[in-house]
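Subject: Sanity check before I submit

Could someone independently write out the structure tokens for this chain? I want to compare against mine line by line before I put it in a report. The sequence has 169 residues.
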Amino acid sequence: CSGTIFTGTEGPPGTWTDSVLLETGVNISAFGEDVSGALYATALNGTLYRFMPTTPPAASVNDVTAVEGDSGSTNATFVVSLNHSAGQTVSVDFATGGGTASAGTDYTSQSGTLTFGPTAAARAISVPVLGDLLDENDETFQVTLSNPSGVSLGDAQGLGTIQDNDPLP
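---
Independent answer below. Compare away.
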């Protein structure tokens, strides 16, 4: 209950070295974690404190593979995720482009802004992949993140692979 928070670093198996992480000036009586992974401390007087990261979260987008189909469209769903919640509303822009696939023929271009609330960790981007009856090589396109507001960019480019499902003529 001294208010000093320590951290432990593991050395050789079974050995630990402690060091002071933070001097709070508060008589801490307990720690807890909520379902979203946020860490809290309770003081002896009943006050609840939430630990907040000192760096902005990083936004990253994953890679996706989608089978094109013979007609209509199938969604290639990319997930843009933050490595920790921001504690405030943040945003990042996105746009499709590049690669060997052609917008309008192989996929439908998408662009916009993703907004994350204070506790949000992920948002989805659906890119329609257009079906056809042409035998062709697998093709690619990208989803690129830009113009971050309140976040930094981690892996700012996701690769979309369109798998051809048509047999050889």
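---
OP: Matches mine. For the report I'm noting this point. The mean pLDDT is 91.
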